[in-house]
Amino acid sequence: MDRLELKQRTQTFAHRCVKLANSLSETKLGRHIQGQLIRCSTSVAVNYRAVLLAHSDAAFAAKLSIVIEEVDECDFWMEFAVDEQLVSRDKAELLLQEAKELTAIFISSRKTVQLKTRSSHHQ
């Protein structure tokens, strides 16, 4: 998967998370999770765009670390909403799976860049 496909995928992920967040109940907890999920899911997309503009491998890895943290936070808030029965597991399942897949992709990319950086320092 190339970087432009991932850019689109993160943006679609953000849109879908916002829709899920907007479907949560209007309880105090529902509103809290709604805000957190909207914040971290849009942060995934915005920070991935920053990854694409990174000026060095170190900056790339650092910005990718932010994306990894934010997508993991999305996973947390969606799981929490399911646990609190604010949304059904069925309704959240595809997004939960996407969060796990994106996390794996981004961790793998970060490892690749970090290994490349280490090997170039040892030459």
From TrEMBL:
Name the source's superkingdom: Bacteria
One Pfam family of this chain: 23S_rRNA_IVP
Q: Which InterPro entries match?
A: 23S_rRNA-intervening_sequence, 23S_rRNA_IVS_sf
SUPFAM superfamilies named in the record: IVS-encoded protein-like
NCBIfam families associated with the record:
four helix bundle protein
**PANTHER family according to UniProt:** FOUR HELIX BUNDLE PROTEIN
Put simply, this protein is called Four helix bundle protein
According to its UniProt entry, this protein's organism is: Mangrovibacterium diazotrophicum
